[in-house]
Amino acid sequence: TRCAQHARPHVTVPICVPRRCSLGHISDLRGGDTASLPGFENLTMGYNKYLRPYFGGEPVQIAMSLDIASISSISESDMDYTATIYLRQRWTDPRLVFHGNKSFTLDARLVELLWVPDTYIVESKRSFLHDVTVGNRLIRLFSNGTILYALRITTTVACNMDLSKYPMDTQTCRLQLESWGYDENDVIFTWLRGNDSVHGIEKLRLSQYTVERYYTLVSKSQQETGSYPRLILQFELRRNVLYFILETYVPSTLLVMLSWVSFWITLDSVPARTCIGVTTVLSMTTLMIGSRSSLSKTNCFIKAIDVYLGICFSFIFGALVEYAVAHYSSSQKCAAKAPQEGPPNELTKEMEEVNITNILNNSITSYKRNISFTSIEISSDNVNCSGLTMKTHEKIKCVLRNKMHRIIGYFTIQNPSNVDHYSKLLFPLFFMLVNVFYWAYYLYF
């Protein structure tokens, strides 16, 4: 009897050890080490972490929620953002059901003994789990077999940006969660409470942006290996334009207004007007270079701020060209007046003699014969070519010459001082109209 009593424990031990080792790694079966949850040895008998819940049956429903702790960096040059998030995943594993209404928080290192989803962040460039002072992970087990698995992650995610309206742009970025290996036949991703599953994003205070709105989506990713469940958090970021107004728009506008000061300076003050024109052009060039230094040189977008700076540069350069035109016209007019003040030339004498002869003879025919084509060619007045006795090609030349004199007369500045007078009105008027179209287009279209 004693021998039988002592032999029974030796018989049962080798039977129990393999059954308790079924929770751990496959190597545990070969090594003989137990790997069950401490305190849950009876519960986890026959548990295999390599097999998902409902293996071979219905898919596992995984409900997720997010807390956005911070968005520390949004880079236009790299087109990405860096965020710290708290990711919480819930699913039910019927193999872990126990009696009672209690829930137990387990040591995070015991996650290695349980099956967990293979969730990853789509379009993530760099990611890491925080591990100070220990790994920032949470495992909580409920009596109905529900498991809460929480992680603290910092990730840098790509965000395609349209900078054509920079700095009056609104960017739409995404945070996408997807299963890496399990397709929709194995797992189903859902948001725990729809849009209420995301917290903290409405409280974010960013340096250049304001969170306009956000919403959650449930989607699928069709890959060559199957269709995988995907959850999407989409949020819109509106850039704060006040900084750029004070930094770029106001100085460039003031430089344009400064260039208009030259219109009130006389044409004879060459150094003063030249100095204002060149100084404003150089200052505007420096401002344009500085505005582009914040973005990468590889960024080839024509942005809204570049358009405005180009407009301002055009007006400043136009003011400098206006003075050059006015000064050149004034010098040409002075040169044209100089010969008239001297003695009359031979051509004038000849024309006077012809006119006197015509008056004395009182004959139109004699007037037509005596006047030469050379005098018509030199005269700046329009001549009636139809009444002249000349050949056809000469008449054509005469008509074309009259047309050219008339066209040149349209572009001839009779009074150069009027150029500044008109510029005082036209430059501000056109600049105001351009600003109205510019702001209306980029703010409302």
TrEMBL record:
Residues 41-240 form the Neurotransmitter-gated ion-channel ligand-binding domain. GO terms for cellular component: apical plasma membrane; chloride channel complex; synaptic membrane. The chain crosses the membrane at residues 241-265, 271-289, 301-321, 425-444. Keywords: Cell membrane, Chloride, Chloride channel, Disulfide bond, Glycoprotein, Ion channel, Ion transport, Membrane, Signal, Synapse, Transmembrane, Transmembrane helix, Transport. Pfam families: Neur_chan_LBD, Neur_chan_memb. It is found in: Apical cell membrane; Synaptic cell membrane. Residues 248-354 form the Neurotransmitter-gated ion-channel transmembrane domain. The keyword tRNA processing does not apply. Its main location: membrane. The keyword Glycoprotein applies. One of its GO terms (molecular function) is GABA-A receptor activity. It catalyses: chloride(in) = chloride(out). It is a multi-pass membrane protein. Heteropentamer, formed by a combination of alpha (GABRA1-6), beta (GABRB1-3), gamma (GABRG1-3), delta (GABRD), epsilon (GABRE), rho (GABRR1-3), pi (GABRP) and theta (GABRQ) chains, each subunit exhibiting distinct physiological and pharmacological properties. Pi subunit of the heteropentameric ligand-gated chloride channel gated by gamma-aminobutyric acid (GABA). GABA-gated chloride channels, also named GABA(A) receptors (GABAAR), consist of five subunits arranged around a central pore and contain GABA active binding site(s) located at the alpha and beta subunit interfaces. When activated by GABA, GABAARs selectively allow the flow of chloride anions across the cell membrane down their electrochemical gradient. Pi-containing GABAARs are mostly located in peripheral tissues. NCBIfam families: LIC. Belongs to the ligand-gated ion channel (TC 1.A.9) family. Gamma-aminobutyric acid receptor (TC 1.A.9.5) subfamily. GABRP sub-subfamily. This is Gamma-aminobutyric acid receptor subunit pi. It comes from Cepphus grylle. The lineage of its organism: Eukaryota, Metazoa, Chordata, Craniata, Vertebrata.
